[in-house]
Amino acid sequence: MTEQAKVPAIRFAGFTDPWEQRKLVEVATFGGGHTPPMADPDNYEDGYVLWVTSQDVKSNYLDRTTTQITEKGAKELTLYPAGSLVMVTRSGILRHTLPVAELRKPSTVNQDIRVILPQGECCGEWLLQFFISHNKELLLEFGKTGTTVESVDFGKIKDMLLYMPSTVEQQQIGDFFAKLDSLITLHQRKYDKLVVFKKSMLEKMFPKDGEPVPEIRFAGFTDPWEQRKLGDVASSFDYGLNAAATEYDGQNKYLRITDIDDETHEFSKSDLTTPLADLAMSADYLLKESDLLFARTGASVGKTYLYRQFDGMVYFAGFLIRARIGEGADPEFAYQATLTDAYKKYVAITSQRSGQPGVNAQEYADYQLMLPSKTEQQQIGMTLRSLDDLITLHQRKLELLQNIKKSLLDKMFA
Questions:
Q1: Which of 292, 295, 288, 388 is nearest to 347 (CA)?
Q2: What is the pLDDT of residue 97?
Q3: Which residue among 68, 109, 312, 411 is buried most deeply as judged by most CB within 10 Å?
Q4: What does pLDDT average to over the chain?
């Protein structure tokens, strides 16, 4: 979009011509929509016409909507063909992204959506990827901050300049990214299914409130589970090191609440630090096998992390509490118990304070959990850990593909 950017850094073989500068209005036509009266149930009940709102544009391909309207509701709306692009131009979500998607099925839209219909020499799949590659730049240039919601100046977007290759090159680029997007979607679905499956297994492998046994058990286990306090199976509860973080020294890692990944509960090593303290005098804060950490205050209260030897030399920070799980319990089982709805409910109730939420060491020690024999604990812990490892594997594959796409978008668009 600058004068010097007339060709991308990476091109398919055989294409050498410079990209030409065009106005969007020269290669597309435009449309919009509105909301049929909500008071009239005939506009919505048993509707089957797809009707796109801002909440529907969460991915770059749209084949379903949260609300469908009737033929009566759609009577005064335009039914846009598959292949049209929809752009959210007025919404509370515009502060961070400019949502754009391609319609997979004919659809109508509401007043927060503008429709872009590529014409003639403009390939819709290429134009979609153009908007994705320039998303932040376009939002910065055309975005407007309102008193209640953000919006974009679509009138100016229609007149914006963009560099375009030949239609044949557009098609190659569009097809390439469409295949890459399909691969990303495949891994996203696998990841989502595994996350749902793990949640279901947690519900079924731990007893429900008032029940002595879970819904699913491994063969050979029949004894009822016993209710115990977490403090009964932990040898100690300790607060972390009150020290600032400094540049990572290559060996001694510092674990703070923000270093525990919200989804995987693993130690995120993207921004490693070392505690600014006399480490020779800080051995008590060095984590060992069977150490289970709890976040004790703030929005992350209740978040947990189980130390693993491959994380190396790790010191834990002051807003964390360490429970050292004793011989009578399996640390992995105890950790998995903190991912259940029963634990989350306990934290939600216990953490209520006049200021920010918090749970102290004694309150964590008082948490009541159901315990089977240690052998059964180990089987449950090992099974759920294997599932976590599989989820993490798919998450990393997904992140890798997303990073590859981001890099290629930067290099394949002028």
A1: 295
A2: 86
A3: 109
A4: 94
